Description:
By secondary structure, this protein is mostly helical. The chain has three helices and no strands. The chain is flat, with a radius of gyration of 18 Å.
Amino acid sequence: MPFLDLFGAVSVLPGPSSTPLAIVLSRRRAGWAGLMLGGACFILPAMAIVLAMAWAYIRYGSTPTGSGVLYGVGPVVVPLVVVPVWELAHSSVARHREQG
C-alpha cells in the first residue's frame, strides 16, 4: 500500500496521524518487533521533550525572560507546521495528476 494511502487510512483515526502512521510503517518494515520499537522510538523522544518543556515552563514561565521566549515561539511554530503540510499537499496533487 503506497504511503499516501496509509496516510489516508490513519487520518480517520482521532488525534494526530503521525504516531499511528509511524507505527504502521515500522510494523510493515520489521514485523511486530518493529511495531514495538518504532512506536517507542517515535513516542519516547517527544514525551521527553514535552516533559522538559513543561518543567521549564513551570520553573521559568513567569519570569520576564521566560515570557519573552514564549512570546517568540509562536511565529516560529507556524512555518514548522505549514511548510510540511504544503509539501505533502503538493506531492499529493502531483501524484494525482500523474495517475489521472
